[in-house]
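To whoever picks this up:

The nightly regression suite flagged Extracellular solute-binding protein as changed. Nothing in the input moved, so I suspect the structure step. Input below, exactly as stored in the fixture:
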Amino acid sequence: MLNKKHRIGVMFAIVIAAAVVLATGCTFFEDKEFSGSASGNKTAKNEITVSIYDRGIIPASEGSYADNRWTNWINRNGPVNVKFIPIMRSESRQNLMKLFASGSAPDIINEYNTAIRNSLYEQNQLLPLDNVLKFMPEYEKLITQYPQLKNAGTKSDGKLYEIGKLNEANPLHAFFIRTDWLKKLGLEVPKTQEEFFQVAKAFTELDPDGDGKDDTYGTNLSYYSENALNEMFGDSSSITQFSWGIKDGKIVRLWENELASLTFKKSLYDNHIIDKNYMYDSSGSKAKQDFLNGKIGIYINPSVNWTEFTLSDLAILKKNVPGAEIAPLAYPKTSMGEFTGAINNPIQMTTVINANTKNPEAAAQYIDFMMKPKTSVTFLGDEGVHWTKNPNGCPSVLDPYKQKYEVSYNVDYQMFVTGINQKCGYIINKFNPEVPEQKTALDIYKSAQKLYLDPSRQSRLDGGRIYACISEQSECDTNGSAQGNKRSLCQSDHQRQ
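Regenerated output under the current build:
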């Protein structure tokens, strides 16, 4: 019996020793492989889910919106593990409602559409943020400096629900016309609705690209480009279901404006001036590809990223069509008057947290991490590969192709990040005028500012004159007025789509 007990004791000791060794070994390998904290003590990261727009523009070589170089960097370096939930930009309302109805909505919802966020609030689907602000010191600091952000994110119950950012008030929708086609066909820049139609018709029928084929379109009408075309007539029906405005001090339905824009769009369709299959181009990617291939004469850009468009997109157009020349086109005068287009919202709410999230602290930590200046610099790409410093000391695109295919699609991951709290956040400082292509891009942007930030024109929503506070660098309140001695054109009705 003694020997048996002895054997049992020895075996028990061996098991304990093995367990200790195994546990030590696991700890060693875990620390070695996954270490990254300053103390060397690594704990498992919390997990959250985050919605991200699927705009259909990510190259296959980069992966998907859920899994690419940027999502991988976030998960390697961030405080939490993130599963990104791609949502088609053109169907975000439907997709989000389905996710909430099924109980599988993301922890963090990034959504530009104010009506969608308001609807979620009314359904008690959103988490009040007052108690988690302490886990977002970057945002807490920002709303202390700019209380307008806190005011805009606070709902009727007096609690903070929405996270937002400050934007430069720049043109959001823009028309670009092929000036080389105008010269070739002996046409003038269209200034009225009738001239727009005739020029677009000529671009469609007179073979402006000279290839002997019937393969050009006068303009495009898909995705949000329809909104911009509606704006010519002071009509906002594509954005808000119905078009409303102020007349004689009263809020009224703009029936005449809606009818005028609808009639004009039908004439474009009936005369084959637009692609008849435009309704299937839900992301606008086909229209953009047609433009880049030199097949559209008046390109309606529904959400202009000014550096990407004037550098990367135009570089592709020039490569495909070496003689192509473009210029911004002011909204033509219509039967409803002279209007300007959407202006990027200077105070813009973008992000909310699901009321049913299991770990609000983790969600807040992710938002704080994405707002850190170091993260924003990383999302510019690699210095010397994607960008270099220009004479202003600001990052400028170095390789338009690498920028477009490896960097540009990452913008929505930082949807809630303010970029204009320093000079390099302003578009005008992102160009290097010593580089010919960037000098051209800068000139296009300045021309667009002059055309679209025109205080003499009406805005499409207020029925009156657009707010007149003009310049490049400003801090604007939610009423569109400038603070201090700086001035800017600020129009809080519109936001980036």
